[in-house]
Amino acid sequence: xxxxxxxxxxxxxxxxxxxxxxxxxxxxxxxxxxxxxxxxxxxxxxxxxxxxxxxxxxxxxxxxxxxxxxxxxxxxxxxxxxxxxxxxxxxxxxxxxxxxxxxxxxxxxxxxxxxxxxxxxxxxxxxxxxxxxxxxxxxxxxxxxxxxxxxxxxxxxxxxxxxxxxxxxxxxxxxxxxxxxxxxxxxxxxxxxxxxxxxxxxxxxxxxxxxxxxxxxxxxxxxxxxxxxxxxxxxxxxxxxxxxxxxxxxxxxxxxxxxxxxxxxxxxxxxxxxxxxxxxxxxxxxxxxxxxxxxxxxxxxxxxxxxxxxxxxxxxxxxxxxxxxxxxxxxxxxxxxxxxxxxxxxxxxxxxxxxxxxxxxxxxxxxxxxxxxxxxxxxxxxxxxxxxxxxxxxxxxxxxxxxxxxxxxxxxxxxxxxxxxxxxxxxxxxxxxxxxxxxxxxxxxxxxxx
Length: 450
What we know:
- It is built from twelve helices and 25 strands.
- The protein is an alpha/beta fold.
- It has two domains: about 10-40 and about 80-115 and about 265-335, 3-Layer(bba) Sandwich (FAD/NAD(P)-binding domain); about 120-260 and about 350-405, FAD/NAD(P)-binding domain.
- It has a five-stranded parallel beta sheet, covered by helices on one side.
- Helix 1 runs parallel beside helix 9.
């Protein structure tokens, strides 16, 4: 008896903005989809800095992928790490030994932090690309505050000096949030009253928010300075160690915390494709977003380089979402024997916030071209990010935290939570064996009395 033909199988690597956009756009197509990601959650990266600075909890910005796709019947989710891709054999290899064969492959694995080979950044700097990164940074920052409070006389050794490298939106938002966190910490911890604290924002291009209009940049600089942030423009980080950050002009800043928002590069999977890569290790694609040599292999989002003859697009969520939707249109059209026009990115603008009541938003010309600054820009930023945050429960949690923050600005996630490393009994400062023996004697006495 003949076996029914299996539907077209699409493997989507990466459950970020681009991967999920492509998956959802194929909900009604007669296809099978396997979504592969090394985590079982989608991370809303634009809000990671708020996790790192205690405004939000880790769960607020991470949504269960299976939950997000639970109503889509043609999808299966596979938690795993991709170890290799056989383009000729149309197979994705996972690190647990499993293989996934595909008819179409969508690579949407995003980016990783790029330290540009600067000495000490990888060992001592804090990236902000995942929930783990944000939680690690939050614990570190809170520990610096606690140690400074416990020994204020020795706190001048950089415990409360925070260097942020990169004055793009992430760096600006991080610097502003750190300023607010330190302000609240001083109010809560009297021991910090006389402890010097600094936030230093370093940017080599000469201005904050390089892609923005000069008036927006000037407003952002003023807002940062009003919040006590020191600006080192036309400067870059040359080296980092555990206790200091050295700039390229020779200035040495005593600091135990470098937040690295200075650059990213495409996920290492890009190199596994065996094609020449562009700047930032990005993969060049055609105007239909697939490899020129393999039309069934699509690369979207932050991994994708120039599409066709166009320029490289910004590595932001809107680009990934639009690329994911276009890839789904291409696949559906091919299954029907049709074609679709080339991909064209529709720019909708850009925005950032500097802190409570201070934000900037620049709409694209196609959307009116308005430039908004101040409280209205801040509210616009909050509203847009709430809309795009995945998961109804996450949106509700974040809204409650933000509304609570309007009444009580103190961060609500300030516990230092770290997994136990398993302390050896012999390392404990008490005699566990003696306590155990006494407990057994009492228990035996009670048993005899009974």
